[in-house]
TrEMBL record:
Pfam family, one: AMP-binding
Domain of life: Archaea
Name of the protein this chain belongs to: AMP-dependent synthetase
GO molecular function, one term: acid-thiol ligase activity
Domain AMP-dependent synthetase/ligase: 42-430
Amino acid sequence: MSEVPPESAEFSVDREIWPDDLPRTLPFPGGRKPIHEIVADHGRDRPDAPAVTYYGNTLTWAELDARADAFAATLSERGHGLGDVCGIYLQNAPQFLVAYYGAQRAGLAVTPLNPQFKAPAVARQCRDSGASVVVTATDTIDVVREAREDDGVDLAAEDVIVTAYSDYAGDDGPYPDELTAEPAVADVLEDETALSTAVSNDADVDLPSVGLADPALLQYTGGTTGLPKGCVHTHWNVLFKGTTTAAVRAMGPEDVSLGTMPMFHVAGKQRYCDALGIVGNHAVLLTRYDPETVMDAIDSYGVTSTWLAVPSIEEIVDHPAVDDYDLTSLSARREFTNCSSFGTTLTREISEAWREHTGAGVQESGYGLTETHTTDTHTYGEERIEPGFVGQACYGVEIEIRDFETNETLPPGEPGEIVLRSPATMSAYLNRPDATDEVLEDDGFLHTGDVGRKTDEGYLYFLGRRKDTLKVSGHTVSPREVELVLAEHESLEDVIVVGAPHERRGSVLEAHVIPAAGTDGDDLEEALLSFAEGNLAEYKVPKDIVVRESFPRTDVGKVDRVAYRETLPDGYE
């Protein structure tokens, strides 16, 4: 569990593989203090510098800081402060930043809610987190009203803060449905409070002193292993990992970051709230990913940094209008664009196609968890495009591979559980002491439940979740490992490996696949099985190939294996 270290503590790396152009000791460019204080520094020292642009409308750092300050004053006047929680139930938009910095400045912890949640999920998270304030949009206000009817939700109507996304947008479309179809605040407001009112407060309010040890964030897990759990993160945790992200992405005030990654997700929040607030660069936010809007934003604003899922990258390079836009600003300050390949495997062909249009290649972003506030590894400067490669440990992070049963540390090359210790590990799962004890050791090491292996040099490979392992003819098999190998074949767009029931063996492997465009389906099964036999142990070779047209995906573009398996007949794993 993380504690706030003394000011003199340094976080240095002495590995030989550390990139030459990254500092070996983690710098804290904004100082060691809560991020909302660093935002105030930007507002004072760089008042006219652009902070965030949203469909053509830009807020400067002075304007963003002033609105966050007014929001904090409103919450404080209403009696909200240290120990309280503010829910942010919004898509990507400047209002997210106003609420995030403002609530934390007033002493509240923030809990982001997935904007696609329906009332039962909103009620559950508000109930579990104890949220006494929720910021939402006009198109989701009815969901919050329904959630408030839950007996366990203690949320007064006036503490539901309502905004319209279009209130902060300019004239640069095309707009997503949230902006074109949403009602105005005045048309939906009943007893709630308009955000425009909350950020117009110019009262001189004494705000609490917020320290690095105070709770800043209740970030909920994705619920892939049961109901979502709230990870308690302090201001130190958020500062440390935001600073780490800025360092291993080589971010500077001159960067223009394009944000399509959902900000309710820990990785999106870390980039477009935390690292942004620390570095003081310019963010261009989009509520929804759309390939042409992304290309237009890169061209119009000279975007130097972004993150995209691999399917989004493929969609852009294959877009008929790609040559109408200048995307080369993405290579002005770095050699690679970050991606997530956990849903669709990154290939060298995809990277080179991206480089052809942008001048930058593509690299896997890294490995991390909600429990550690993510960014536990990075791939900066690495040209490796290999199945499962997620780079090396970041500043202050220790990674071991241990035997799942004995907890003994395994030698390089052997797969086992990824166990890590970080200066930013959560203090606990909220209201879940037993679950906390299951994953956190007394010495701070966290059991991730993920399967991985390390190389002699210190690189980490992610091989999947242990809960996804299957027993095949007495052998333990990671479906993800098989998927990573099969995904290297040029005939595949996506693959999910499942366990099919078998009378004698208990289960056998089936590869459910989406063929790549132009693939001859008649020869696909033979080609894939031959490829698997040449690259996998016999017991890991699928016994059957099943062709599918599509797979369900998560909000961040990953293939949703849990949702897909729920569509399969009984007996499948």
